[in-house]
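Subject: Sanity check before I submit

Could someone independently write out the structure tokens for this chain? I want to compare against mine line by line before I put it in a report. The sequence has 165 residues.
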Amino acid sequence: MKLRSVLTALTLVVAPGVAVIGTSTDAFAVTKISHATATSMFRSSGITWSSSGGCSDRNNPTCTSFEQLNLATAQGAQTLKGASGCALNITGGTETGHASGTYSHWNGYKLDYAKNSCVTAYIHSNFTYIGLRGDGAPQYKSASGNIYADEGNHWDVLYYNCGGC
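---
Independent answer below. Compare away.
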């Protein structure tokens, strides 16, 4: 049996309700989760979420959706919440309206968090400043390689992995 088949089977046993996306030529498989699975994970960790439109439609830019979020991204939010002890409110997920690209909100790699003094102090104290992003946003890198960009009124976080979950 191929390693990929074994990993897929294990993923489905360990995390029911999620789907593994990828082909046999991918370097790794990305596990996608539903909005309901993500909100359950966030609720169990004390993470809140909000949207300017008060909705969760992935195709509406005023909503906050977690449909097709990467499992590692949701776990990364849980890791940040647990490690920082800060109140964490997600204001942006996989909904349309964000910048495009491979490692984008739409593709499940990013979350936006409302800024608060606790989260900002945690990021500044525990992550390494790596310079300005192309749009001028200051960036900080965690030991696990995830990137936290200060976009002024919120943190834009790129999760390559779950941050040590």
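---
OP: Matches mine. For the report I'm noting this point. Residues 71-84 form the longest helix (14 residues).
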